[in-house]
Specification:
By secondary structure, the chain is an alpha/beta fold. It has one domain (about 20-380): Alpha-Beta Barrel (TIM Barrel), CATH 3.20.20.150. The chain contains 14 helices and ten strands. The chain has an eight-stranded parallel sheet with strand order 1-2-3-4-6-8-9-10. A two-stranded antiparallel ribbon has the order 5-7. Bound molecules: alpha-D-psicofuranose and manganese (II) ion. Manganese (II) ion binds near residues 144 and 291. Manganese (II) ion (MN) binds near residues 144, 246 and 291.
Amino acid sequence: MTQLETPTRERVKQTLRAQRIETPSWAYANSGTRFKVFPQEGVPRNPYEKIADAGVVHRLTGVAPTVALHIPWDRVDDYADLASHAADQGVALGAINSNVFQDNDYRLGSVTNPDPGVRRKAIDHLLECVDIMDATGSRDLKLWFSDGTNYPGQDDFRNRQDRLAAALRETYDRLGDDQRMLLEYKLFEPAFYTTDVPDWGTAYAHCLELGPKAQVVIDTGHHAPGTNIEFIVAFLLRAGKLGAFDFNSRFYADDDLMVGAADPFQLFRIMYEIVRGDALRPEAGIAFMLDQCHNIEPKIPAIIRSVLNVQEATAKALLVDADALAAAQQAGDVLGANAVLMDAYHTDVRPLLAELRADLGLDPDPMAAYTRSGYFEKIRAERVGGQQAGWGA
Ligand code: PSV
Ligand code: MN
C-alpha cells in the first residue's frame, strides 16, 4: 500500500467521522426467497429486539446511529416508548417505510388500484405512517409501490398515473414542515409487465410536481442490468432531488445481498459522485440506508460487514485527487483522468479505517469485536419461544 500523507489521512478521517448509515429493522429479522425462509437462532421476536441489535451494530461501527422501521412489520402500541427504547440502546428511529403491498386488497394495486375503496385504504395507511413519524420524530416517509400490471390491456397507464399523483399529493400535503417524502422506484417485481413507478425519471417527475419535500430514493438493486447508477446519482444530486439510498447489491435482479459484495467498484463510483456533489455531510440531507435481507448468512455480522463496505467505498472516494482529476479532464487526458480515479480505488483503506476507529475509542476490527462480545450467545439463549420476526411480522 502507498503510504498516505498525514494531511490526507486526517482530512479523510475527519469527513468519515460525520458519516451516517441507517440500518433496516427487517434485516435483523428472518427473511428468504419465495422458495424458503431459513430461520436462524437468536433472531428478534419484536421491534424492540430488532432495535437492540441495531444498537449493537452502532456501538461496534460508530456510524450507524439510526434504524429504519417498516409498518406494519414494526407496529407497536406506543411509538414514543419505542423511540425511548431506541435512545436507551444508543440509536434513534429513522425512516418510516410504508407497506401497501402485502394485503389481499392490493392484488390489482394499492394507490393505483381501479377500485376507489382500495385506493382510500392505501392512502389512509400512508397518512398513518405520517402520524407515526410525528410520534417517533422521524424525518422521512419512504414510499415504495408494488403497483403495476402483468398483462397488456390489463389497466390504463394514464389513469394509473393520475391515481398515483392524487395519492402522492394527499400524502405530501399531510407532511409537517420538517418531514420529507422519499419516492422509491423499481423496474419490475412483483408486477412483470408495467410498474407504475419503474424508474428514476418517473419518480423524479412526480417529485418535481409535488414540491421541495419530495425526493427520490435510489435502491441500488432496482435497475436493469448494466444501468449506470452513478450517473443517476450525479443527475439527481445536481437537480437537488436525491433524497436517499437503499443500499444492497445484486448479481441478477433485486437480490438484496450485502452492499459492496457483488460490485465494490460500482459502490466506489456511486460514493465518488456523492463526494463530488459534497453530499456526504449530514446537512446535505441524503439518507444512506441499507435495504437488505440476510437469508443464509448470520444477520448482525452481515449488517456490520455492509456498514464497513460503505465506509471503505467512501474512504476510497474521498481519496480521489480532485485537482489532478479536474486538470486531466480539462486537458482531455482520458487515460490520466481514469488513472486518478483508479489510484484511489486501488488504495487499501483498511489501515486508515482501523486508525479512525481507534481514534473514536472503538475496536479497530468490528467483525472480530462482535464475535468476541458474546452477544450472539446471549441472544441465542434469551430469544427462545415466541414468534420470530420476519417479513410480514
Ligand atoms: C422493494 O423491493 C423494497 O426495496 C422497498 O424498499 C421495500 O420497502 C423493501 O424492499 C422491503 O424489503
Ligand atoms: Mn428498497
